[in-house]
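We treat protein structure as text, and this decision shapes the records that our systems exchange. Below, we set out a record of this kind in full and without editing:

***
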Amino acid sequence: MDALTNRVGPVVTGVDFFGRQVEVDRMVSLLERGDHISLIAQRRIGKSSLLREVQRRIEPRMVCLYVDLQDCLGSADAIAALTEAAHKHTRLRTRALLAFQNLLGGVDEVGGELLRLKLAEGLQGDWRHRADRVLADLLQGDAPLVIMLDELPVLLVRLLRDGQGRPRPDGHDQADRLLSWLRRTALAGQGRLRLVLTGSIGLHPIAHQAGLSGTLNIYAPFALSAWEPGVAMQALQALARRQSLELDAEATEQVVELLGVCIPTTCSSSSRSSTRTRGAAEPPPSASSTCSVSTGPACSPATDTSSWPTWGSACGWSFPPTGCRW
């Protein structure tokens, strides 16, 4: 394979989306047979990139909406985010705002902050009535609708607990209302609607702790695991080629063995701090970010990082390649 570019943070597409073809094929197959999915994975493992690639694969025979709930503070915000995402989709734009028509005053083109204000106004009180209308309108098309709700667990935590981590008096009822509405909507739209739920923290443990596990029993679990060593080796060699470095099979195998489990990781101040605390040498200025291929899969540090200063000699290098952090 050709060289890969090391990207951290943004969703990865094209040639830089690497090593997940089996998972993409499996999720596409589940959606085509009409399943609802709960995507289970660790942080920084490439969930969002996987969803975006699945979205690319299933359109145009399905209509796919990716909705990021990261910044939502409540259920009404989530419905507003869904509506706004539908309004931006070329195949749903004409139907997305029908449920809010009485609030828009006949305005043909509305967007940005004005749209958010109008949506918030329309979702005051019991948001479920307006949400039912939104979904009914979106499902009027000929193609099945796939809605991917990313960071749903983050929203659930905000519903259940306040900023200090204390249980909200109405938190359980609010979380139950949202999850039950999603379940009811999914069942009512069977054959026309598929829901995909995921997030950077575990959805099922949160629901279990709140006594709401029953609201998730319609979703097929889909585990996104770490890379197999062979895939990680291919990625490392491709990353090395991007840096014009030669990395033979033996050296690559040694690197993967030193790294341990091949999972995504990010370079943060806390990781640098912990490395210094354990007495390992500070990474050279050329070392940055993670050894990742932007989907995220990357080789995480082994538990013992004391070998950092000498790992290069084990691989035949005198310095770490730019873009890699062990």
